[in-house]
Amino acid sequence: MSIFGDSQGGSDKASAEKIDRLCKEVLTHYHDGREKLLMRRYEETADCFRKVIEQENVLQSTCIEAKEAWFNAHCLLVSFYAFGMGVGKDHDEAARLYRKASEHGKAMAQSMLGHCCRSGLGMDHDYTEAASWYYKVAWQGLSYAQERLARCSVRGKGIEKNLLEAEKWLKKALANASDDERDYYKARYDSFRRMVLEGDDAYLWYRGQCSWE
């Protein structure tokens, strides 16, 4: 075997060991953060999650658990910045974290980035971009995004107003809902059907008991 082959083999082993240590470090910080969250030690929790998201190289690993921890730390830390838990309230930072996770294809982060666009949290209101994110995630089967896309279709916000499309996405949201979510999405769908059958004005409907805001 050539010296170059030996060198390459040693380099690959060292790289694998480095990634393995990184995965263990990410998981340690993440689980420490979850434990501190249960104890409501929010400043320490935020510090742990920040240490997790700093290790973006973990996405190059094959460790699914560590990669999920990286994504989840983003979504949890966003809540801290959105509500000022253990950190100063900072909607700009919350939106930045959602966008960063979204760029790596995390469905829930993409949905929540759509929410930021729609609500103007940390950015200007942009209903078109919001609908675009919801549409992307809706095809991945996430009920939250499917129901949000239905809202856009009802109101004509960011996309063309289309009640048939709204009904399609509400049906999908209900079909994909977990047991805990099913009652919520069924109420949405039933309320939508009442609007269509009774000819209620869409504006009055989404501002009513089942608000679409």
Could you explain how this protein is built, in words?
- The chain has 213 residues and is mostly helical.
- It has two domains: 1-89; 110-213, Tetratricopeptide repeat domain (Serine Threonine Protein Phosphatase 5, Tetratricopeptide repeat, Alpha Horseshoe), CATH 1.25.40.10.
- It contains ten helices and no strands.
- It has helices at 3-38, 42-53, 64-83, 91-102, 107-119, 127-138, 143-155, 163-176, 182-198, 202-206.
- The longest helix is centred in the first third of the chain and has 36 residues, at 3-38.
- The model is unreliable at 203-213 (pLDDT under 50).
Mean pLDDT: 84
Structural class determined from secondary elements: mainly alpha
CATH architecture of the largest domain: Alpha Horseshoe
CATH level 1 class label of the largest domain: Mainly Alpha
Largest sheet: none
End-to-end Cα distance: 67 Å
How many strand segments? 0
Order of helix and strand elements from N to C terminus: HHHHHHHHHH
Per DSSP, what share of the residues sits in E-state strands of 2 or more residues?
Answer: under 5%
Q: Estimate the global geometry from the Cα principal axes.
A: elongated
Radius of gyration: 21 Å
* Total of DSSP H or I helical runs spanning 4+ residues: 10
